[in-house]
Design a protein that fits this description.
By secondary structure, the protein is mainly beta. The protein has 4 helices and 11 strands, in the order ββββββαββββααβα.
């Protein structure tokens, strides 16, 4: 069985998904990556109370993920500059968005084989080049990539409402159904309608393996249940 590789794929920024622009496939899978998720809580003290008040949940913060990408072309004398430039471009606006009022860098997907760990924006790329060819061509480098979960506003939302929607994605495999995806993501198979609505699916019985679906935040799934 072939070893599946981790990757960072650059996709067109879009609240309902985007086509892939390019990707960096890890020559060596990472030995680890860190994933952080936090929430906002508000605690209002009551005058004269002998114990702390119960906190009120104010919402979830976007998840952040940090991973090291080890690029090595030394043995083959291969220039790793294209992969370095691709990773750095994650922090730059796409040419296709420069004419708009809101220029945007690409979104990225961090995945490993058929598993998607995060759909995100890249916050930083810290590159350390450790090996060069005689002419200065980079042959070996370690890039620390920090990314933050995407929380785009849905198109139908009132822009003054201040709300946000967290979107992640999953890749369908043979035998998958919307109900199965909903059960894995939410623990409720009958919440599949929220996933269908987010992806514009009219016929839930016609799903193809290899299709990438966006999975709305659990609050939106509750609203559509």
């Amino acid at each position: 069985m072939a070893i599946e590789k981790a990757y960072i794929a650059l996709i067109q920024p879009n609240t309902t998904g985007g086509s892939e622009i390019s990707r960096v496939t890890f020559p060596y899978n990472p030995k680890e990556f860190s994933l952080k998720k936090s929430a906002q809580w508000e605690r209002k003290p009551a005058r004269g109370a002998k114990s702390a008040a119960m906190p009120e949940f104010k919402g979830a913060d976007p998840a952040s993920l940090t991973v090291e990408v080890f690029l090595d072309g030394y043995e083959l004398g291969a220039d790793i500059s294209p992969d370095l430039l691709t990773l750095q471009s994650c922090c730059l606006p796409l040419d296709s968005t420069l004419s708009s009022k809101k220029p945007s860098p690409p979104w990225v997907i961090f995945g490993w084989g058929s598993t998607v760990h995060l759909t995100a924006l890249v916050k930083s790329v810290d590159t350390r080049v450790t090996m060069f060819d005689q002419d200065g061509t980079p042959l070996r480098a370690t890039c620390t990539v920090t990314m933050e979960e995407i929380s785009p506003a849905p198109a139908s939302q009132n822009p003054t409402s201040g709300g946000r929607q967290t979107i992640r994605s999953v890749l369908l495999v043979e035998g998958d159904s919307l109900a199965a995806v909903a059960y894995r993501e939410y623990g409720k198979a009958d919440w599949w309608r929220a996933i269908a609505a987010a992806n514009g699916i009219d016929d839930p019985m016609r799903l193809r393996p290899g299709t990438r679906l966006l999975v709305p935040d659990i609050d939106d799934a509750l609203a559509g249940a």
